Each structure stands twice: as C-alpha cells, then as structure tokens.
Amino acid sequence: MSGKRNVHYRKIGIYFILFFMAIAIVFPIYWMLLTTFQPTSQATAYPPSLFFKSFSLDKVIEVLLDTSVIKWIFNSFIVALGVVVVNLLISVPAAYSIARYKIKCNTILLFVVLVTQMIPPAIMVVPLFEIFASVGLNNNLLSLILADSILTLPIGTWILIGFFENIPTEIEEAAIMDGASKMMLFYRISLPLTYPAMVTVAILTFFDAWNEYMYAYTFISDQSKWVGTVGVASFMGQFLTDWQAVMASSLIFSILPMLIYIFLRKYIVRGVSEGFAK
Amino acid sequence: MANVSLKGFSKKFKNTVAVDNLNIEIEDKDFAVLVGPSGCGKTTTLRAIAGLEQASAGEIYIGDTLVNDVLPKDRDIAMVFQSYALYPHMTVYDNMAFGLKLKKLPKQEIDNRVQEAAKILDIEPLLQRKPKQLSGGQRQRVAVGRAIVRKPKVFLFDEPLSNLDAKLRVSMRAEISKLHQRLGATIVYVTHDQIEAMTMATKIFVMNHGKLQQSGHPLELYRNPSNKFVAGFIGSPAMNFMDGILKKENGRILFQIGDSKLEVTDSFQDSLQQYLDKDVIFGVRPEDFHIRPLHDEETSFASIKVQVEVIEPLGEESYVHFVLGSEAMIARMRSTEFMKVGDEISLYIDMAKTHFFDKKSSLTIM
After folding, report:
1. Consecutive sets of 10 residues in chain B, 366 residues long: mean pLDDT of each?
2. How do beta strands B16-26 and B154-158 pair?
3. CA-CA distance, A221 to A225, in Å (whole number)?
4. Cβ-defined contact of B85 to A192 (cutoff 8 Å)
5. What does the pLDDT look like over A44-87, one tens digit per residue?
6. Contact list, A166 vs chain B (CB under 8 Å)
7. CATH number at residue B220
8. Cα–Cα distance for residue pair B4/A180, rounded to 1 Å
9. Are residues B219 and B312 in the same domain?
C-alpha cells in the first residue's frame, strides 16, 4: 500500500514541476499576445492587467505597414535557408565519411568537431568580422550564412553520424553485390534512408540561424539588410522602448518557426533521440 | 552455373586468423553448406567468395576464373544476407529490380525477371509493398527473389533462416531445397545449425577455429566423423563422449569407464591395439543405446547399469538423461513408459556403431 502511495506522491510531484515549467514557458508567449492585441492605452497601462479587456489589431497593422519588419523577416528567411543548405551540403558527406570509413584520426576529428561547440560564439565575432571585411563581405547576408554555418555544423554532423551508423552495413553490401559504385551507395542507398535525419538537422539549423542575434547585429549595419532579431531589438531604444511594437514584431517574427515546429515536430524528436542514442 | 574452389585461402584481421589455409572444392550444382560454431570462419569464407572480404592468402575460383581481384558485381554471384538487407526505402519490386537496373537491362527484361521470380516465390501480391510492411518470412522470400532475378552462377546464403521462428524455419528449409532443385544452381550456404546442414546439403564442410575439419555427404559425416569435433557437432542430440582406458582381458580389448567394462567389437580390435592401457575417448550416439539387445548376429551389445536422471518425452520418442562415470549422457529411446526418474536400468550399447578418438589429437581411431 505504502509503495502505491509513494508512486502516487511522486506522480503529483512530477505534475507539479511540469505545471510550473509549462507556466514559465507559456507565460511570455501569453504576455506577447496580450500586449500585441490590446489597444496601446491598455497595453501600456500601469499596473498592467493579466487579462484581455478589449481586442485590437492596430499595433500589428502599424508594425506591418510602417516598419520594415517583413523585409527583415525575409532576410532572416534567406539567411536561415542559406545556413540549412550550406550545413547539409557539408555535414551530410562529412557524417557519412566518418560513419562509414573508419580511419585512425576519426576520434580526434570528432573531438575537434565537439571542441568547436565549446568555444563561445562571442570569441569569434572579431576574427570573423576581420575576415569578412577583408574579403568584402561586411554588410552582406552571405557573411551571416557563413558565420551561422560555423556554429551549426558540428551539431548537424553529430546527429547525422548517429543516423548513418544506424544503417546496417549489410544493406550497402547488398547494393555492392547488385553492382552499385561507392557514390551510388551514398546517394541511392544511404542518403534516402537519412532523409528524416536531414529534415531534423535542417529544422534545428533553421531555428538556430533564425534566432541568431550577435553576429547579425555586428556584421550587418545597413537597416535594409537587417534580419528579424536585429529588427525586433531596434524597437528598444536607449531612452524609450515601444514595448507594444517589440511584442507585435516578435509575434510576427515567431509565426514561421512556430508553424515549422508544429508541422515537423516528429522529425525533431526522432532526429534528436535517434541521432544521439548510441 | 559453376563450381567454386578455394585453394589455400586464409584471412587475417590484424593479428587474428579468421580462416587458415582452407581448401574446398564445391562442384557445379552442389548445395554446399559451411557449418560450424560462431567464430569458426564460415561467414568470412562466404564473404570472401562474395568479394566482400579480400583474401590474405590463397586463391578463390568461380568456374575457371580466379576472382581474387574481381569486383563482387563482376563475379556473377548473388547473396542472401542474414538480416535480408532489403533496401527499406524501395518497394519489393524495386528491391528485386535494383541490380538489374544497374546492369542497364531493358525495362521489359527486368519486369519479366521480377515477375518470374515473384511467381516462383509466391510473392506477386507483395511487389508494391515496402519491406517494413512484410513479415520475416516474406522478407526472406524477397531477399531470395532479389538473388534469383540476377540469374547468377552461384548463390551465396549467409544464415538466411536464423531470424525466423522454428516453424517457419522448417518450411523455408524445404523451400530453399526445392528452389535448388528447380534452379539447378550451385549454392554455398552458411549456417551454425547442423540440422539445416544435414537436411539441405549435398555436401557439408565442417569448420572450427578457421580450419576445415571434414567435408563430405551429410550421412558420411554422421557415420564416419574424422574427429571428435565433427562427431560432436553433427547429430542432435550430440554424440555422448566419455573418457576411459583400454584394457585387455582374455585376449579381448575392453573399454573401461568407472566400474563398467565394455567389450570392443571385432572391427576395432586391431586398430585399438596400439592404444592399450592408454586413455581414449569413447563416443556413442544417443540412438545407439537400447533397452534390450537387438537380435542381430553382426552386432554385439555391451550392457551398462545407469540411474535415470531426467526423461524428456517428445512424443514418439524420449530423451533419457543419465550419468556414466562422471559424464552426463543422453539416450534416445522409443519407449520409456516403464521407467521413471530415479530408476536404475540396464542399457545396451550397440558397440559396432561406437567411435573411439585419440585423446591427444582428438582424431578418430579407425
């Protein structure tokens, strides 16, 4: 009996923690919606209200029409898409090679890849800025694509290595018997089997690039080339912050990743769990 | 179709010798089974024939062609893997057609071959399914189908039945044997299951520790094993072995185990002379224990008294477990209704069918 009661208490404890975690995660989103969809007078009132008193789309329309938020989101999309493409073009063959062709320096190579994840991105800001400036890429979205790719490549490669290693070598051997060349083994056999993992890596990479702020703020000064994160932050001034504009632009900026997550979340869960389940 | 021969074939993995100086000759249309325990080198040998492993030494011939440096696809062979190794992202049809497409055969020819193989294997309704939608037995058929469509000189099977349940294994065994007869193909089949080897093979190659122990027709190996390993590996339940000493009394050689003395038959009297007063290993198959001596003039029966420890009824026959000397033994008996666990019974050994092995070399004393 006491065992059953213990299990019961433990369940209550777990749900209690989960409830507060959910509140901590959902409340900022709720606050964003609340601030965005209220008339400015209510949104800026003090003390603030925790609940909707009236509904207004004024600020959303104002931000959409009077600012470059759509342009910034488009820039973010271009950068994120570019990072996904660069990342997959490099991480897929890299992961396949590491998983399939066991060479002595593999362990060292993987360690080095992992070590790059431990370097704080801030340390690389100045060197990267110097490099991009020297090749004429400053104030160019390509610099962001390249810089963000550096940040996301290791994790993408690691996830894909796990996937490639999970493909039984016998399948490739069967293809060898069928007459497949080494390149065919890669693109006709192993690659199609890793599509789910590639989708996972693409989504995670897309999110990383979409949310990146520091490089975007440093490398791009031209306002028309800003990405979403920098654009949203621009509503926060040194002396005055238009919080409703911050929230409205944040909401608009969040719609695309939210949709992606809702529709493709099974790939994210599967990719992360299978890629690291070794 | 073609014969397969390995001459002095060896395979090393770093410092481990997986196969050591293997010489085998598989005739055209043979159903050759490489059998042995795990790690004996049988799969390595098969993979070397397939071209998936390079020989460290020796020569591999398929037909008259030395294939050591020939790519797997050019060896004119097909292989069925233990895990079937079907392409998960392709339909059954595409799985079977993949190799033919790479060969750039005309579409109609590919379709004809796939349909023909599907008909033989009774998998026509499955052609548009993906492998994950198939049962283990169906996957196995598709794997065989993928091999058949290539019309190879030699089929290689790597433990293809080991992932199937016992009942399906028995039916697939018969199907593969039928397929062999129908295609008239040379088959090299690897298994650790001696029953599969005995029931399917026209020629068995028994391997252990990377070396060939004996080869021949299944019944030849069963009746005349060349050493203790083969004697123990072929046959189920395995042959009973007991250590003892050979003595001579009244001019006749006797095998002494504990208090029991068993008179050796005439056929062994000469060959065992040199082993007098020496330790030898005595082997009896479970079916050569009898409740009463058979009335056959040419056989002589030696009697032993044993205590029944376990009776395993299997229906028509039973396995009776007992201890002789210090060795655990199994006898295969037709009727055991009269005995129960703990009974002391007399058993008669058909001495004409027993085996003696040199204790040092483990070789059969002929």
Report:
1. 90 91 93 94 94 94 92 92 92 95 94 92 92 90 92 92 85 88 90 92 94 95 94 92 88 82 82 86 92 66 87 90 88 85 88 90 88
2. unpaired
3. 8
4. no
5. 777 878 887 888 888 888 888 877 888 999 999 999 999 999 99
6. none
7. 3.40.50.300
8. 24
9. no
Provide Rg for chain A, Cα atoms. Answer: 23
Q: Are A218 and A35 in contact (CB under 8 A)?
A: no
Residues of B in contact with A178 (CB under 8 A): 73, 98-99, 102, 146, 150
Contact list in A for residue B82 (CB cut-off 8 A) is: 170
Residues B226, B244 within the same domain: no
**Are B182 and B244 found together in one domain?**
no
> Which chain B residue has its CA at the smallest distance from A194's CA?
B89
**Cα A197 from Cα A271, distance rounded (Å):** 5
* B249 in the same domain as B348: yes
- A83 to chain B nearest CA, in Å? 28
Please give the Cα distance from B144 to B176 (Å, whole number): 9
Chain A residue closest in CA terms to B155: A177
3-state helix, strand, coil in chain B (%, to 5): 30, 35, 35
To the nearest whole Å, the CA of A165 is away from the closest chain B CA by: 15
ipTM, interface predicted TM-score of the complex: 0.84
- For residue A177, the distance in angstroms to the closest alpha carbon of chain B comes to 5
Show the 3-state SS of B180-220.
HHHHCCEEEEEECCHHHHHHHCCEEEEEECCEEEEEECHHH
Residue A149 confidence (pLDDT):
93
Pick the residue of A177, A186, A191 with the most B CBs within 10 A to test the interface with B by mutation. Answer: A177
DSSP 8-state class, residue B110 = H
Contact residues, chain B, for A189 at CB < 8 Å: 87
Residue of B nearest to A170 (CA): B85
**CB pairs < 8 Å spanning A and B:** 51
Residue type, A83: V
Domain count of the fold of chain B = 2
Let me know whether B299 and B227 are in one domain. no
Range of the domain at B319: 240-358
pLDDT of residue A275: 54
**Span A120-133, average pLDDT:** 90
pLDDT tens-digit profile of A193-248? 988 889 889 988 999 999 999 999 999 988 889 998 998 888 887 777 888 888 88
CA angle B117, B75, B172 (to 5 degrees): 35
* B195 shares its domain with B335: no
